[in-house]
Design brief:
310 residues, alpha/beta, Rossmann fold, N-(1-d-carboxylethyl)-l-norvaline Dehydrogenase, domain 2, 2 domains, five-stranded mixed sheet, 13 helices, binds NADPH dihydro-nicotinamide-adenine-dinucleotide phosphate, binds ketopantoate
């Protein structure tokens, strides 16, 4: 079998956790190469000391075959897993062009439903897979990722693609102990994640409270209204979703540890220069305008968050 080269682009909370498991499993493998595309001080730490992943009392250090900010050092990849924030997707794909030929699969694992279109515009001849993850994980300091909570699942697939290559990728993920599922219905799964994360990111940031707090009596009405608005957007996009998606989503939220919060809320709290307000909140309003669907609660909350953003 020929070598399989997998690049993880963006070694933050998500890329660091899943990339870390891959790099640990395949560090000496003759058939599978795991490469990290990172930058800055974080990259230097990984190059010098490896990437440390902390999970409760346990930790391990992962050493990818290459960690670099120079795509030419990596060469052409079979699969590029994009784990940046949504506002960095286009730039990172442009940077990674030397690693991409027509056969390279691209798998964005970001929150949101608009990355695939952005990537396909840059790479019209490539297969852009779809995917999403449920995990709570943060870049704690350069070279260190901390995974919290009780879920670490990854879903991926491509509508109308039945390729043994995808099965091969699933096997690679699973052997690295990643809870990965190759789905035949990935559009629904990615939109269900969006119906979950868009209201959650929006509400936790708006109220400046954890997920546990926003699903208590004080705020559940607003969260439910947000879910119902985004549900209509999914339906307008002809996505098959469960009729009781609102109840299912609230149930999912209640099953997370009380103190969990969204990565967008963390970014607002940490006053990061950029955040995903547009792809997680503003996008719903834009889609409402496109499909003639009213989204009054999104508009109210977005306008207030936009002011905080300045
Ligand atoms: N964190 C979580 O628990 C979850 C996050 N998500 C979603 O996953 C996506 C990733 O989130 P998360 O992992 O938290 O994000 P992070 O900000 O922790 O990580 C993104 C990483 O990508 C790096 N990066 C961005 N552009 C480049 C580039 N051009 N070259 C090299 N490195 C680059 C960033 O570097 P720098 O710091 O220098 O900008 C950063 O290290 C988001 O869409 C998020 O909403 C989904 C589920 C859970
Ligand atoms: C809420 C959570 C942790 C669930 O996966 C998430 O997706 C995020 O932080 O963006």
């Amino acid at each position: 079998m020929t070598k399989t080269k997998i690049v993880i682009a963006g070694i933050g909370g998500v890329g660091g956790y899943f990339g870390g498991l891959l790099a640990k499993q395949y560090c000496d493998d003759k058939e599978i190469e795991i490469c990290f595309f990172a930058r800055g001080q974080h990259l230097l730490e990984i190059q010098n000391n490896g990437l440390k992943i902390i999970k409760g009392e346990n930790e391990f250090v992962a050493n990818p075959i290459i960690a670099t900010d120079n795509p030419k050092e990596i060469g052409v990849a079979d699969l590029i897993i994009i784990c940046t924030k949504s506002y960095d997707v286009e730039a990172v794909v442009h940077q990674l062009l030397p690693c991409i030929n027509d056969k390279t699969f691209i798998l964005p694992l970001l929150n949101g439903v608009d990355s695939n279109e952005k990537i396909q515009k840059i790479l019209p001849n490539n297969t852009i897979l779809s995917g999403c993850v449920y995990i709570v994980s943060r870049l704690k300091q350069p070279g260190v990722i901390e995974n919290m909570g009780n879920i670490q699942t990854l879903y991926f697939g491509g509508d109308n693609i039945s390729d043994k290559k995808l099965k091969h990728f699933e096997t690679i993920f699973k052997q690295a102990t990643i809870e990965a599922t190759l789905s035949q219905n990935i559009a629904t799964i990615v939109w269900e994640k969006f119906i979950f994360i868009s209201p959650t990111a929006t509400a936790t940031t708006f109220f400046d409270k954890s997920i546990g707090e926003v699903v208590t009596e004080n705020h559940i009405e607003k969260v439910t209204a947000l879910i119902n608005e985004v549900k209509q957007i999914a339906q307008a996009n002809n996505i098959e979703i469960a009729e009781n998606i609102t109840e299912l989503t609230i149930h999912k939220l209640k099953s997370l540890p009380f103190e969990t919060t969204s990565s967008m809320h963390s970014d607002f709290k940490n006053k990061k220069a950029c955040n995903e307000l547009q792809s997680l909140t503003g996008y719903v309003i834009d889609q409402g305008l496109k499909h003639n669907i009213e989204t009054p609660i999104y508009v109210e909350v977005y306008n207030k968050l936009k002011k905080l953003n300045r």
